[in-house]
């Protein structure tokens, strides 16, 4: 895997976690 693939994967995972938390605890956003 290239560095770009790893960075993209981490970014996508972080975005998914952010959206999940935003759905579960909307009062914090």
Automatic annotation (TrEMBL):
Tagged with keyword Phosphoprotein: no
Q: Name one GO cellular component term.
A: plasma membrane
List membrane-spanning regions: 6-24
Q: Does the keyword Transmembrane helix apply?
A: yes
Enzyme Commission number(s) of this protein:
3.6.3.12
Q: Report the domain of life of the source organism.
A: Bacteria
Question: What GO molecular functions are on record for this protein?
Answer: hydrolase activity; P-type potassium transmembrane transporter activity
Protein name, as recorded: K(+)-transporting ATPase subunit F
Q: Which organism is it from?
A: Amycolatopsis eburnea
UniProt lineage: Bacteria, Bacillati, Actinomycetota, Actinomycetes, Pseudonocardiales
Q: Which gene encodes it?
A: kdpF
């Amino acid at each position: 895997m290239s560095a770009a693939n790893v960075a993209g994967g981490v970014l996508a995972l972080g975005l998914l976690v952010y959206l999940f938390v935003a759905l579960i605890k909307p009062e914090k956003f």
